[in-house]
Amino acid sequence: MSSKDRILGRIRRALRDDAPAVEVPRDYLHAHGSRTPAERVDLLAAHLAEYRAVVHRTDEAGLPPLIARLLAERGARSVLVPPGLPPHWLPAGGPTSVPDRAGSTPAELDRVDSVLTGCALAVAETGTIVLDGGPDQGRRRITLIPDHHICVVRVPDQVVDSVPQALPLLDPTRPLTWISGPSATSDIELDRVEGVHGPRTLEVVLLGTQ
User: Fold this and answer.
1) Model pTM greater than 0.70?
2) Average pLDDT, integer, range 162-178
3) Does residue 164 have a cis peptide bond before it, meaning omega lies within 30 degrees of 0?
């Protein structure tokens, strides 16, 4: 029996079938104020910028040239693409498209210059992007290893005010990744280091009508 099996066994014994159910009061605010869809998107953009994400706005017609420009400015020669990503998002004649493969090693993913994905939801009050491994997002690791992540958020449909509003819309059995800005950490002297456990650069494209 492994250590994992022993720990899970103890949890099962603690959560006996005959244990009384405890009702958890959820009387907290589900949103801090009332906003229009446009105000919600503006708040998301402001909080993303506070977290040092780079925010862009465009419509469907402007998306392919914008993505082409972002990849060119990065000098990307390869871009990792989830299987369900709309093909027209990628520029013709642009960087080499690398498919999301189960057999890809961390070293192979580290050699990819950029990754382009959609998202499941975005939370305005926290400036958070949520990925759930959907067809336009791919496996969790493809957004954690490459150093440059371009994430497209459909606005206003994919934007909610708060975490309490987001949770009922998400499937808890899926691999949820909550991203608030580029990966960063600080040591004991508060020196900020970016790109330690995720992309050093996060670019968020708010895709709507203009």
Assistant:
1) yes
2) 94
3) no
